[in-house]
Write a structure and sequence with these properties.
Helix content is 73%, strand content 0%. The chain has 291 residues and is mainly alpha-helical. The longest helix has 37 residues.
């Protein structure tokens, strides 16, 4: 009786097919090049823009918030805050209010990105990105760019309604562009803060609640609506170091052509760079861990 000799084929480590050993991890794909990264960012920006086109209600905050805040403070509080003097007092307060609200637009618009990214994780959108060979940072950078466009739209609406209620730029067009640039730089830093909140909190409702807790003290504890010297001493101390005060004062100096400009612009840029340097790497790291 003959005995058949069975010769086993050597197990391979590259496959996953029958008779093969455990699959060997693929070699690292390496870092994604700059051109590819920019291409990914452009594609994701287009995706987010198409989402806005399909859901126009997502632009309501950028379109309606500047109108509501301007009309509310000019016509409801303008006479009382501006003091006696009728229309002249209201016009004077309008000239004070509109530049101050430039920085506030960035704060309000940036708040929405936190709830948006939280819902993307909940709906499984980020699971699709996990399977794609793209840089994780490109997803967040694309969101920042889209939010900056929404901020610019909100500022345009704010300036338009400001002109309607009596704001006059008085020929300071270069100053207007500078104010938009300063407010946009500060707004981009705020976007990273709210992205980090969206990645940290469990639900979109929690993100929104925490965002309001951040938003309200910064808005009303600043020089956006009233001059700090009308506030109690303890509140003045907070207002003078508030980043939103620096943005508002910088915008007024640039758009109105009087008042201090160099110092508030400098501190606005310091706040913007500092907040971005701290929160952006943490947000990207948190995003990579979640995806």
């Amino acid at each position: 009786m003959t005995t058949a000799t069975v010769t086993e084929a050597p197990a391979t480590t590259t496959g996953g097919g029958p008779g093969q050993g455990p699959p060997r991890p693929r070699a690292a794909e390496g870092r994604i090049g700059l051109r590819a990264n920019l291409r990914h960012i452009g594609a994701l920006v287009r995706r987010n823009a198409l989402q806005i086109k399909q859901d126009p209600e997502s632009m309501m905050d950028a379109l309606l918030m500047p109108i509501i805040f301007t009309l509310l403070f000019v016509y409801v509080f303008g006479g009382a805050i501006g003091g006696s003097g009728g229309g002249a007092a209201r016009d004077q307060y309008t000239a004070y209010l509109i530049p101050g609200m430039m920085g506030m637009m960035g704060l309000n618009i940036a708040m929405a990105v936190g709830t948006g990214i939280n819902e993307d994780f909940r709906k499984g959108v980020m699971d699709r990105f996990r399977a794609m060979p793209i840089a994780r940072s490109s997803v967040l950078i694309a969101k920042v760019l889209v939010e900056l466009v929404r901020m610019l739209v909100a500022m345009l609406v704010l300036l338009t309604i400001g002109v309607v209620v009596g704001f006059d730029i008085n020929g300071h067009w270069l100053g207007l562009l500078g104010a938009i640039g300063v407010a946009t730089a500060f707004g981009s830093a705020l976007v990273w803060i709210f992205i980090l909140l969206g990645l940290t909190m469990r639900t979109a409702q929690a993100v929104q609640g925490m965002s309001i807790l951040i938003l309200m003290p910064l808005q009303f504890g600043s020089s956006v609506f009233v001059q700090p010297d009308t506030m109690p001493g303890w509140l003045q101390a907070f207002t003078e170091v508030s980043p939103l005060t620096h943005v508002a004062d910088a915008a007024r100096g640039l758009m109105l052509g009087h008042g201090s400009v160099a110092s508030p612009v400098f501190w606005t840029l310091v706040w913007s760079v500092g907040l971005t340097a701290v929160t952006a790497p943490v947000a990207i790291m948190k995003f990579r861990k979640k995806t």
